[in-house]
């Protein structure tokens, strides 16, 4: 199976709102593409551009980038290509990708916490009974 990658969403929550937080997270992911706006696109692009610029500020970061390019056989202009892709990104593309890859029916939710008080409640999410993983020793 080919995937588009991994999406990780995490947040600390109080035990007594675990179900509500998981439900909200699921709904946000489910509705992401449909509710994504031009303002969201502008904010995302601006944030990513600033973040990318900071990624290469130090000599160590630049050496790491060169290592990544060499280790993965990437073209020397990979950063310029990524920047061009980001610049060309539009709302319709984000919505299309979200629809294709953000499938909440196939989502795996990992909850760490008080199983005694929360596991039964989490069944209301509609993913079946929680699978308990024994603690590592």
Structural description of this entry:
The protein has 137 residues and is an all-alpha fold. The chain has six helices and no strands.
Brief account:
Helix content is 58%, strand content 0%. The chain is mostly helical. It has one domain.
Topology:
Elements: H1 18-35, H2 38-55, H3 59-72, H4 78-88, H5 91-101, H6 115-122
Overall tally of structural domains: 1
Give the averaged pLDDT, no decimals: 91
Please tally the helical runs, counting DSSP H or I stretches of 4 or more residues: 6
Strand composition percent: under 5%
End-to-end separation in angstroms reads: 33 Å
Class from secondary-structure proportions = mainly alpha
Major sheet summary line: none
Q: Helix-strand pattern, N to C?
A: HHHHHH
Outline: extended
**Total beta strand runs:** 0
State the helical fraction: 55-70%
Over the alpha carbons, how many angstroms does the gyration radius reach? 19 Å
Residue runs with pLDDT of under 50 for 5 or more positions: none
Search tags:
137 residues; mainly alpha
């Amino acid at each position: 199976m080919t995937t588009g990658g991994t999406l990780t969403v995490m947040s600390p929550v109080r035990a007594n709102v675990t179900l509500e937080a998981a439900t909200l997270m699921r709904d946000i992911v489910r509705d992401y593409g449909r509710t994504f706006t031009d303002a969201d696109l502008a904010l995302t692009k601006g944030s990513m551009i600033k973040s990318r610029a900071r990624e290469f500020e130090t000599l160590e970061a630049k050496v790491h980038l060169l290592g990544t390019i060499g280790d993965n056989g990437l073209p020397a202009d990979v950063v310029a290509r990524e920047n061009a892709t980001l610049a060309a990104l539009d709302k319709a593309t984000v919505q299309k990708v979200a629809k294709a890859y953000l499938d909440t029916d196939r989502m795996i939710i990992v909850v760490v916490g008080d199983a005694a008080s929360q596991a039964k409640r989490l069944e209301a999410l509609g993913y079946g009974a929680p699978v308990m993983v024994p603690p590592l020793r």
